[in-house]
């Protein structure tokens, strides 16, 4: 697998998938044929996560090929990330509590042999070891493999889910605070309390075309128990009615400014914000940091082609801008944590899709998906 860090590559992947493989997506999407055959899925998530291509660019392309009824499952999967982000925005303490728990658990497990064997792919479970190596090598796993991986980590290897979520965030090109943290919570049985996801030998064999042997799992483990509950906050995500000519900050989740809601607004200067590991609670791998850096450089090149004054700076350098700036909202995660901790003066601008969709994220996804036709009608 190869993820080239450019918008041009994202568009090419989208077009190829829509033309050749979209029609079979619902039937084949759960099969993990291995890293050398990903034709049954779009592999667009690393670009969606970084805002290199938007959810609605993808949905619009899919609807140009097939009707909503034939596209429904694919569109739902595209909007899962939008939903997860909205769910976490309404309950940001879930992320804060996760990081606090992680810091404590890290210390407890720093010399734990079972944990070290897991992250080195040195267990007695062949498929798990393969996925560890695939994750480190390709910075990507099939969604079904992520579910199996997390289940094995939590219920067979008996390791804390918080460390597994950190391991994913460290390596995944498409890792983000919402989808990753909430996905691991869901497998553990604390996102939907009392309902965990248990990987099974037959399911892994079926959906990997019997690529693996030696799959001895705990298939009857109870869910993780958590006494914490989180109620949805009543938050408003409003933009200023009249935008002034100020500087604009763009973080690594909004890297297609020229296609976005504010592309016609005049700003003094655009600052593209990188975030070094020194600023992060979860240290990212060298390959992931390089991927982010290249995507930021690609955005800079595209903006300069439009004669937009653009500069790349580190997150820690924002405080050197001696005036309040606008910033495309970075969503709950490491960037926003740093901004709040350091009390940086930024007036956030929110995507219209997020403003509209997040109001439907106060409950579960099955409730959210009822509003997907309405969301599509509003933005298509």
Characterization of the model:
The model has no long low-confidence stretch (mean pLDDT 96). Strand 4, helix 14 and strand 5 form a beta-alpha-beta unit. Strands 3-2-1-4-5 form a 5-stranded parallel β-sheet, covered by helices on one side. Helix 5 packs across helix 11, helix 9 packs across helix 11 and helix 10 runs antiparallel to helix 11. The protein is mainly alpha-helical and 380 residues long. The protein has 3 domains: 105 residues, Serine Threonine Protein Phosphatase 5, Tetratricopeptide repeat, CATH 1.25.40.80; 102 residues, DNA Cyclobutane Dipyrimidine Photolyase, subunit A, domain 3 (Orthogonal Bundle), CATH 1.10.579; 102 residues, Rossmann fold.
Topology:
Elements (H helix, E strand, L loop, with lengths): L6 H14 L4 H4 L16 H5 L5 H11 L2 H22 L3 H17 L3 H7 L6 H13 L4 H14 L4 H11 L5 H12 L12 H7 L40 E3 L19 E5 L11 H20 L4 E5 L10 E4 L5 H8 L4 E4 L2 H6 L7 H4 L3 H8 L1
Parallel strand pairs: 1-2, 1-4, 2-3, 4-5
């Amino acid at each position: 697998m190869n993820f080239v860090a450019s918008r041009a590559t994202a568009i090419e992947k989208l077009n190829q998938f829509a033309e050749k493989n979209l029609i079979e997506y619902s039937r084949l999407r759960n099969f993990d044929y291995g890293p050398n055959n990903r034709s049954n899925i779009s592999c667009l998530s690393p670009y969606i996560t970084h805002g290199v291509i938007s959810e609605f660019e993808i949905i619009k392309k899919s609807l140009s090929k097939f009707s909503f009824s034939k596209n429904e499952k694919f569109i739902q999967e595209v909007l899962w990330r939008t939903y997860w982000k909205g769910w976490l925005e309404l309950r940001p303490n879930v992320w804060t509590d996760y990081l606090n728990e992680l810091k404590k658990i890290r210390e407890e497990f720093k010399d734990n042999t079972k944990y070290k064997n897991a992250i080195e792919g040195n267990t007695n479970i062949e498929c798990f070891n393969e996925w560890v190596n695939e994750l480190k090598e390709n910075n990507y796993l099939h969604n079904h493999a992520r579910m199996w991986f997390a289940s094995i980590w939590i219920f067979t290897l008996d390791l804390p889910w918080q460390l597994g979520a950190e391991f994913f965030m460290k390596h995944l090109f498409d890792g983000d605070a919402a989808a990753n943290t909430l996905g691991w919570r869901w497998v553990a049985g604390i996102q939907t309390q009392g309902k965990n996801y248990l990987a099974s030998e037959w399911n892994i064999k079926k959906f990997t075309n019997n690529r693996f042997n030696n799959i001895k799992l705990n298939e009857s483990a109870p869910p993780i128990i958590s006494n914490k509950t989180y109620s949805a906050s009543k938050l408003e995500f409003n933009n200023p009615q009249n935008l002034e000519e100020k500087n604009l900050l763009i973080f690594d989740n909004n890297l297609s400014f020229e296609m976005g809601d504010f592309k016609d607004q005049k700003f003094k200067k655009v600052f593209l914000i990188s975030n070094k590991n020194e600023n992060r609670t979860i240290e990212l791998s060298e390959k992931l940091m390089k991927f982010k850096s290249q995507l930021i450089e690609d955005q800079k090149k595209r903006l300069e082609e439009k004669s937009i004054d653009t500069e790349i700076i580190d997150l820690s350098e924002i405080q050197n801008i001696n005036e309040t700036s606008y910033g495309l909202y970075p969503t709950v995660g490491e960037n926003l944590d740093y901004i709040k901790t350091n009390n940086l003066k930024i007036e956030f601008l929110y995507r219209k899709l997020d403003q509209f969709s997040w109001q439907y994220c106060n409950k579960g996804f099955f409730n959210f998906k009822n509003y997907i036709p309405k969301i599509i009608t509003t933005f298509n």
